[in-house]
Amino acid sequence: MHNERVPQFLSDHGVAISYSAWPIENPRGVVQIVHGLGEHSGRYAELAGRLNASGYAVYAHDLRGHGETARLPGGETQPGQRMGPDGVRTAGADILRFTRLLRDEVPGVPLFAIGHSLGSLLLQRVINTRSTAFDGVVLTGTALRMPGSMDGGDLTRRHRPARGQGTGFEWLSRDVAIQAAAAADPFMFDAKALEELGVRDGLLLFGLPGRDIRRDLPVLIMGGSDDTLGGTVSMRRLARAFTRRSRLSDVEVVVFPEARHEVFNETNRAAVADRLVDWLERRAR
Question: What is the set of domains in the chain, with CATH numbers?
Answer without folding.
Answer: 8-281 (3.40.50.1820)
